[in-house]
Specification:
single chain; 425 residues; mainly alpha; Clc chloride channel
């Protein structure tokens, strides 16, 4: 047994040295990426809060410019980046993997996300962080030259895990994401190496940035398990909305496929105008990841149902445009807004579940319904709020929402998009 496990580990010292260097570079790159992304979305929001009409100029130009560049000059930076990692683990052909994952792709992703947020795109940073992490780790393979397919795929999975760990300070969720999404075809022995390196990356990130939760500390909120049945309608609503988001996204992406440059530019312009309209209505609140809005909601700040509706359709529009950007945090913000509204209704009929717990559960349910990864969805939100004591109700909500979403669209959204990348390359 020991020999069998050892066989799945690298044998040369330089490989471990490269893993350490890749870990350090990934933490530095993603930390820098998070900082410039925060700066760019804050800059746009301040400007649009003062002059909302400017969104009709800035946002369409941004969408047209980035989508054109991504399609014709750096095609594989499009979207969240998670489908690229999934597709890369399906291929044995080294040149194909290098088109999906490389230092060049990582640089292009960082640059375009910065510009997209500066232009008011309602996008997140977690998917791009995962793509950047996978690209950096796979980029190091040119130096260590791993030949075994298992180790190459493990390298990609480690990078993906690192992206989520560093972005959200969520080590357990990072590992579970590898298991649920990127590493489904990996042998079990590879997860030992992935876990070791991911934990090392977590320690590096903590030493550099501290160990504060990405959202806020909600560890003081308790939950009576005898009331768990009251969360089931919430899970069903979240499952329906998340399932519809996935189905509409994939359907509209199929309808908006264009080959001529004129059509590409026209579609990008139209989608940019739609997002600009939502930015105008919300005075820039729907732009960016939604992190600030989630913090406001969790701190009993009123944000309104209009935010949920505009954010939902703005994120849908942005996602189908294939502009680089993730859906984790935007989905969490939609779930938080929805949860605040549902919590108000539950309180009015005498529910004894605290508002914050309802919001946490709705975030878990909606994210699980969109990405169809219930374990990752549960742990990433509980880790971001220091509320792992809510694990049992969180898992129940996540799996119910996941089941409902599956009835609406059978295939998980990232797997469907990964197949599209497979066809293109």
């Amino acid at each position: 047994m020991k020999k069998y496990i050892v066989h799945h580990f690298p044998r040369e010292l330089k490989t471990y040295a490269s893993l350490i260097l890749a870990s350090i570079l990934t933490v530095i790159a993603i930390t820098f990426f998070l900082q410039i992304s925060e700066f760019s979305q804050h800059t746009f929001r301040v400007l649009i809060a003062q002059q909302p009409i400017l969104s009709f100029i800035i946002t369409p130009i941004t969408f047209v410019s980035i989508i054109y560049f991504a399609k014709y000059y750096c095609h594989f930076i499009q979207g969240s980046g998670i489908p690229q990692l999934i597709a890369a683990t399906d291929f044995r052909n080294k040149p194909i993997r290098e088109r999906l994952l490389s230092f060049r792709v990582a640089t292009g992703k960082i640059s375009t996300i910065f510009l997209a947020m500066l232009g008011g795109a309602p996008i997140g940073i977690e998917g791009p962080s995962i793509h950047i992490g996978g690209s950096i780790f796979y980029g190091f393979n040119r130096f260590i030259k791993l030949n075994r397919k298992l180790l190459i795929h493990a390298l990609i999975a480690i990078g993906g895990s690192a992206g989520l760990v560093v972005a959200f300070n969520a080590p357990i969720a990072g590992m579970l994401f590898v298991y649920e999404e990127i590493g489904r075809k990996l042998k079990k022995q590879a997860f030992i190496l992935i876990a070791i390196v991911s934990f090392f990356i977590y320690l590096l990130a903590v030493s550099m940035r501290g160990n504060a939760p990405y959202l806020t500390d909600l560890s003081s909120y308790s939950f009576d398990l005898t009331l768990v049945w009251q969360l089931f309608p919430l899970a069903i609503i979240a499952g329906v909305l998340g399932g519809l988001f996935s189905k509409l996204s994939l359907y509209l992406m199929g309808k908006l496929i264009a080959n001529s440059k004129v059509k590409v530019l026209l579609i990008a312009l139209c989608l940019g105008i739609i997002v600009a309209f939502f930015n105008y209505l919300s005075k820039g609140k729907i732009a960016g990841s939604g992190h600030a809005e989630v913090l406001q909601i969790l701190n009993n700040g009123s944000i309104g149902l209009d935010f949920v509706i505009t954010k939902y359709f703005a994120v849908l529009t942005s996602f189908i445009s294939t502009i680089p950007g993730g859906v984790f945090m935007p989905s969490i913000s939609i779930g938080a807004g929805l949860g605040a509204e549902v919590a108000g209704l539950m309180t009015s009929v005498g529910s004894k579940i605290s508002v914050q717990v309802v919001i946490i559960m709705t975030m878990i349910g909606y994210l699980s319904a969109v990405i169809r990864a219930p374990l990752t969805s549960t742990f990433v939100i509980l880790e971001m709020t220091l509320s792992l004591h809510l694990l049992i109700p969180g898992l129940m909500v996540a799996f119910i929402a996941n089941f409902i979403s599956k009835q609406i669209y059978h295939q998980p959204i990232y797997e469907a998009l990964a197949e599209n990348f497979s066809k293109k390359v």
